[in-house]
Amino acid sequence: MAVGVFDSGLGGLTVYAAVADRLPETAFVYYGDNAHAPYGVRDAEDIFNLTCAGVERLWAEGCDLVILACNTASAAALKRMQETWVPKDKRVLGVFVPMIEALTERKWGDNTPPREVAVKHVALFATPATVASRAFQRELAYRAIGVDVEAQPCGGVVDAIEAGDEILAEALVKSHVEALKRRMPHPEAAILGCTHYPLMQATFQAALGPQVTVYSQANLVAESLADYLTRRPEFAGPGTVSKFLTTGDPASVSAHATQFLRRPIRFEAA
């Protein structure tokens, strides 16, 4: 048994790297649905069906706990999956929770009424599907009041990162930040709401300015998972050897993943 990490492509490797570093005694199985990436331009039904198929494949690998290391899947599919599809002996968790905990400085199990928080103006950078779902705003509203969230759909950024075109990715990030700042000139915090975006965190920070706190997910998810497995160790399982699966071409995905993480990664066909 291992912990599953699901993503539509390579972006979830930022989460995998963080959780593997944080939990070196834990085995992980990473599943990248590269054949159908990116999810950010798909409709909710398509995202739900593709995510369910990937999670089922991870269950077949013995991963009773799966992390959706994909904001689009977390936004568009997770709630429906948890309410209608996931069996009682399995767990599927998303990547929004740790970030909202950090932003609101309250634990997920804290069900007290929403209250004011220090940050009032938040910029959200995410895929078009994540922005359209309004999932981040909905979950934030359960816990905080008086927070203005301005969301910017960042079309093209994921494709540029997956293709290894850093120059194009940087240009697109700067363009999207400029577009958001025309609507919200002075954000106090910025949420990088896609697991690809940590690779461009320095570009986001430079475009936003040093006065903006940039929240990236990978390390927040790693700490949250470590806490979860402390409370539910039965979901960790034995072993420390990780495995990487893809619906795309394993050789091509392996080459891109190695460049992406700057460490050797070998994918197998899912």
CATH architecture of the largest domain: 3-Layer(aba) Sandwich
- Number of discrete helical segments: 12
Helical fraction: 40-55%
Secondary-structure-based class equals: alpha/beta
Number of strands: 12
Distance, first to last CA: 17 Å
Average pLDDT metric: 93
Strand line-up in the sheet with most strands: 4-3-1-2-11-12
Q: Strand percentage, roughly?
A: 15-25%
Write the H/E string, N to C.
Answer: EHEHEHHEHEEHHEEHHEHEHEHE
CATH topology of the largest domain: Rossmann fold
Uncertain runs: none
Radius of gyration: 18 Å
Count of individual domains: 2
From the spread of the alpha carbons, the general shape counts as globular
| Name of the CATH first level of the largest domain | Alpha Beta
The main sheet comes to: 6 strands, parallel
Textual characterization of the structure:
The structure is a single chain. The protein is globular, with a radius of gyration of 18 Å. It folds into two domains: 3-94 and 218-269, Rossmann fold; 97-216, Rossmann fold. Helix 12 links the parallel strand 11 (243-246) and strand 12 (268-269). It has helices at 13-22, 44-60, 71-76, 78-84, 96-104, 128-133, 135-141, 157-162, 166-183, 201-208, 217-231, 250-261; strands at residues 3-7, 28-32, 65-68, 91-93, 115-116, 121-126, 144-145, 148-153, 189-192, 213-215, 243-246, 268-269. The chain has twelve helices and twelve strands. Helix 1 (13-22) crosses helix 11 (217-231), helix 5 (96-104) packs across helix 11 and helix 9 packs parallel to helix 10. By secondary structure, the chain is of the alpha/beta class. The longest helix is centred in the middle third of the chain and has 18 residues, at 166-183.
